[in-house]
Write a structure and sequence with these properties.
Chain lengths: ~700, ~350
């Protein structure tokens, strides 16, 4: 909000420079966004937060500055000359809906000549960026920016029945406002009406039909207090935001309506015309009373961490308009403070404590650190497992990406297969655009977007991962029309790989990552996050999710529970992205991951030597490796320490339909050196069950 | 003779270590293993003169040394063929062969750094849903419907009464509902406001909320805690300044400035010449918030604060455009590969 420094100086002495005034305001909690030169004057752009409508005018801001500098505040004069006619003979005012309008003050001014206002008023308005219009409009604008009270001038001769009613709009009522728009009104909109029709949307905007015109001679000047919530609702519903609505919806001073109206009348008279009818019309449904609050020095000391004496508190609060009664010595333990009507933000004791702290200066408050022990296990972090997984992925060559969870619906319907039994996708009521109208149920489409982004910038090959939330509605029985529960949120980790992991290098030409590379990374990551290994299985025919190529898809499980999927993305699923070639991906649900890092336990390092045997085995090609390993381990028992596959070969001279596998077996006994015949015995057992159970044989060497 | 063998072994390995080319290796071979005058050949010939009971053992020892020498010479010869050993063949300026590493996102790096500081101060980390009830996001935080403060929280709605959380503050409510004071925790996470995308706005961004509630938690405690925090993050020369401000869920409320991390308060382009950077909001928990979660504001007090993780990352790394965080351009992400994940 724009303020003129010279205008402020009309109410308080400010020998300070503009920058110094800006600093004073900042310390008061009224930060200045910019200071600009305006002729010989300066303008300050002050950021006034919603709780301080009283500072949305020059007098209010001057009051803060007067209090901070300890100088007196000069209240502007507002004593117009009265004529002989009585206001009540010229017009009547009624408040029909007192819940929305607590006070309505009206002055009647006759013999008005519409013309320019005095140049000093025009200059003041121009300095804060307002265009002078005529003496009537300028006077109301001036008072708005001086005292913060929005005023409205009606052409009295255009009011049916010379009557003003503050009432709720009638069903179907319409009003053409000053901006030329035609608004249809609703029952909870407060309007100012005459005997027959709505004239203005109360607190928001005046109507065209009762507008001041160059030929206007008699006016009714409105100065009222409207309910903040009602003004806000109407203003938002109609999409009309005005200087008046901005103040009314934050709360104006119900005590100032008459003072402001008289000030405006005096200003109009300064332009050389206007007779003010005697006896203002002032209808009050709720008297503007001063709230009275108690303020305990002990409470203040505890909350601020600093003690302030009662006398000091009184000295700090009084210049702001608070009336402070000190406790009688030895009697009460608290002050009684009457709150001025313009301080709509001061409602309870803590608000007074803030006022004291603000006036003392936050920089005067000491700095300490609380030492108590939290009941929420200190040091615990739900995201610990996901951070372990992230670090693993980064070490494995993947770059971490982040994406907006608001996404296009189409791809989500293709990719969302992770959460078993998940409900509907979650949609937004008011998305930014149609490409962001759904909350993601899979992280993969976002990662594909980023692959395209990088490809378009010359990075054709990339390995990316993301950890983030996905959203699905609770799986409800159909027909549930009750208020929705919150969606189910899960934390997933997804990764995509396209092309080699790294650039060509003179010593090493990185090959394209394949399924087994990605599998190894997935296994390492899951082990790191979950503290136990994942199992990969081929889905039964027809059960692979649509986004994966069924020839290269596997389900990831732990203890039989599906964690997610890994595989090659189906070309049909990625057709919308311009990404030729294979894309490998996985996506797993880490929601249940334990937050505590799995503890390592030491076991003694073996002291006995190992015996190693390499076996070259030929198996039917449809026998899965895990069956071979299980067979070897069963036969090897406790003495078989490890099985490691170090070669796999298909092709001549191996007969078609068979595969050659070379495994290294490591045997070890904890208490003795194994003898050659002992090991040979085990190997013989292995070979014979290999023949009988898997149809395998040893390869001739 | 045993001692002789030991000496010979040492002599051989010294000679081998100093050999720089094939000719030198050949000379070593002749010196130790040559048919006519090799030292070891000489010793082997002398075996016959030993007493019969010593002969087999010494024979074995000499034989194994001969094998060791043969293998040593062969290995040295092979090593000479490799570029590193070819003397003039080594070019230390050729590109090295590094493992292919990825990197964490700068938001993750900064989040972890902030978390570590608060964990060291005895805080826990708490979480809450990203789709929230309006009660948790607004009402319980003293922002009733039709409150003007909602203007600053242009929200995405996802069905009646459900909103994408506009700040991490609802985690305050959930944690206070679940636990009893005293409490000290932080809540980092993604939040959402319906802002058009530009260099300073994205519809999703990251906040870190903090709260401490206890019997006599004061504004002084808030000042001390945040001063410690910012100095841990940006160094001991950082000054922290509190200005009165307004957030509906705190009273007294404060805007917190830190001295500019680039000019340390002298004034530069980054801080607009003021020497200060507006960095976060904070304050004492409003009694209405305590009442909303069933705490008695006459018995407990507390402070709360909230900061933008994106904003700190921008500051820390000198990033001028928030959109970079969401584009996942590898040329951008790669710039953070040396930031150590903790």
């Amino acid at each position: 909000m724009r303020f003129s420094l010279d205008w402020l100086r009309a109410y308080v002495d400010l020998p300070e420079t503009a920058d110094e005034v800006a600093e004073l305001l900042a310390q008061a909690g009224l930060p200045v966004d910019s200071v600009e030169r305006w002729g010989a004057d300066h303008t300050l752009d002050v950021d006034i937060l919603a709780n301080r409508p009283d500072c949305m005018c020059h007098l209010g801001l001057a009051r803060e500055l007067a209090a901070r500098t300890g100088r007196p505040l000069r209240i502007p004069p507002g004593s117009p000359a009265f004529g002989r006619e009585k206001a009540e003979d010229l017009a009547t005012v009624e408040i029909a809906d007192g819940d929305l309008c607590s006070r309505y003050t009206a002055l009647i001014i006759t013999d008005v000549t519409v013309g320019p206002s005095p140049s000093w008023i025009q200059d003041r308005l121009a300095s804060i960026g307002l265009r002078p219009i005529n003496n009537l409009v300028d006077a109301t604008n001036f008072v708005l920016h001086e005292m913060g009270q929005p005023l409205h001038a009606f052409d009295l001769d255009r009011l049916d029945g010379a009557r003003v009613v503050a009432r709720r709009a009638r069903a179907g009522e319409h009003l053409q406002t000053l901006d030329g728009e035609n608004h249809s009104l609703e029952e909870n909109d407060l309007v100012i009406a005459d005997a027959s029709r709505a004239l203005a949307i109360a607190g928001v905007l005046g109507g065209a039909e009762s507008e001041i015109t160059p030929s206007t001679t008699r006016i009714l000047l409105e100065s009222a207090h409207f309910d903040p919530v009602a003004v806000r609702r109407t203003s938002r519903r109609l999409g009309v935001h005005t200087d008046a609505s901005h103040r009314f919806e934050r709360g104006t001073d119900p005590g100032i309506t008459l003072v402001a109206a008289l000030r405006a009348a005096a200003l109009i008279q300064e332009s050389g015309s206007g007779t003010l009818a005697r006896g203002e019309i002032d209808v009050q449904c709720m008297p503007a009373e001063r709230r009275s609050l108690s303020l305990s020095p002990a409470r203040l000391g505890a909350l601020l961490g600093m003690d302030v004496s009662c006398d000091r508190m009184a000295a700090l609060l009084t210049p702001l308009g608070f009336q402070v009664s000190l406790p009688e010595p030895g009697r009460q333990e608290h002050l009684m403070v009457e709150v001025p009507t313009w301080r709509v933000d001061v409602r309870e004791e803590v608000d007074l404590i803030e006022e004291v702290a603000r006036m003392v200066g936050y920089d005067q408050i000491p700095a300490t650190v609380p030492a108590f022990h939290s009941t929420t296990s200190p040091g615990s972090r739900p995201s610990a497992a996901w951070d372990r997984a992230r670090s693993f992925m980064a070490a494995a060559g993947f770059a971490e990406a982040i994406h907006f969870p608001m996404v296009a619906r189409g791809p989500q319907e293709t990719f969302a297969a992770i959460v078993a039994g998940g409900g509907e996708l979650v949609t937004l009521d008011n998305p930014m655009n149609r490409q962001m109208d759904t909350l993601r149920a899979s992280l993969l489409p976002g990662l594909l977007d980023s692959l395209v982004h990088n490809r378009n910038r010359g990075r054709d090959h990339a390995q990316l991962f993301e950890t983030g939330r996905i959203f699905r509605e609770q799986a409800h029985d159909s027909g549930n029309t009750q208020a929705k529960d919150l969606p189910v949120e899960r934390t997933l980790l997804a990764a995509v790989s396209r092309g080699p992991g790294g650039l060509p290098h003179w010593r090493r030409h990185p090959r394209e990552l394949d399924f087994y590379d990605l599998k190894g990374i997935l296994e390492g990551m899951v082990d790191r996050a979950m503290g136990e290994p994942a199992t990969l299985t081929r889905p039964e025919t027809g059960h692979a999710p649509g986004f994966l190529d069924p020839l290269a898809a596997a389900q990831v499980t732990i203890h039989g529970d599906r964690l997610g999927w890994i595989g090659r993305l189906a070309p049909a699923a990625t057709a919308a992205w311009d990404l030729p070639g294979d894309i490998l991906a996985f996506e797993v649900d880490l929601t249940g991951a334990p937050t505590a890092r799995p503890r390592a336990r030491h076991t003694p390092v073996p002291r006995q030597p190992a015996a190693e045997r390499d076996l070259a085995i030929i198996l039917p090609a449809d026998v899965r490796y895990h069956r071979l390993e299980a067979l070897l381990r069963a036969a090897g028992g406790d003495l078989l320490e490890s099985v490691s596959l170090f070669d796999r070969y298909v092709g001549s001279p191996i007969p078609a339909g068979r595969v050659s596998l070379a495994v290294r077996l490591t045997f070890r006994a904890p208490d003795r050196t194994l003898t050659t015949p002992e090991v040979q015995n085990i190997v013989d057992t292995m070979v014979s069950s290999l023949r009988s159970e898997l149809g395998g044989e040893l390869r001739d060497t | 003779m045993e001692q002789e063998l030991k000496d010979l072994r040492v002599e051989f390995s010294n000679a081998l270590a100093s050999a720089r080319d094939e000719a030198a290796l050949e000379a070593i071979r002749i010196r130790f293993l040559g048919q006519k005058s090799g030292c070891l050949t000489h010793l082997m010939r002398g075996l016959g003169r030993l007493p019969a009971d010593q002969r087999p053992r010494m024979g074995q020892t000499v034989n194994s040394l001969k094998k060791e020498m043969d293998a040593g010479l062969a290995a040295a010869l092979a090593a000479l063929a490799s570029p590193e050993r070819r003397g003039d063949g080594l070019d230390p300026t050729l590109p090295g062969c590094a493992p292919n590493l990825g990197q964490l996102h700068p938001i993750t790096l900064v989040r972890r750094e902030l978390e570590e500081i608060f964990i060291s101060l005895g805080y826990s980390i708490e979480e809450g849903p990203e789709v929230e009830t309006e009660f948790h996001n607004f009402e319980a935080l003293n922002i009733p419907p039709d409150h003007p403060a909602r203007d600053d929280h242009d929200s995405f709605y996802a069905g009646p009464g459900r909103v994408l959380r506009t700040h991490t503050s609802p985690v305050q409510i959930r944690t206070m509902q679940r636990c009893q004071p005293p409490l000290k925790f932080i809540a980092p996470g993604m939040v959402f406001r319906r802002d058009a995308i530009d260099p300073n706005h994205t519809p999703a961004f990251f906040q870190l909320e903090g709260m401490a509630v206890g019997e006599r938690v004061s504004l002084a405690d808030l000042k001390g805690t945040l001063t410690v925090f910012w100095r841990r993050l940006f160094g001991d020369r950082i000054q922290v300044r509190f200005r009165p401000s307004y957030f509906p869920f705190v009273e007294p409320g404060a805007e917190v400035d830190i001295s500019c991390i680039l000019c340390l308060g002298k004034g530069c382009r980054a801080c607009g010449g003021s020497g200060w950077i507006e960095i976060m909001g904070a304050g004492m928990v409003h009694p209405a918030v305590f009442r909303a979660v069933g705490y008695d504001p006459d018995r407990v007090s507390g402070f709360a604060f909230g900061m933008g993780i994106d904003r700190i990352a921008k500051l820390k790394y000198g990033i001028e455009d928030l959109r970079l965080f969401w584009e996942n351009d590898l040329r951008f992400l790669g710039q953070f590969r040396n930031e150590s994940p903790r």
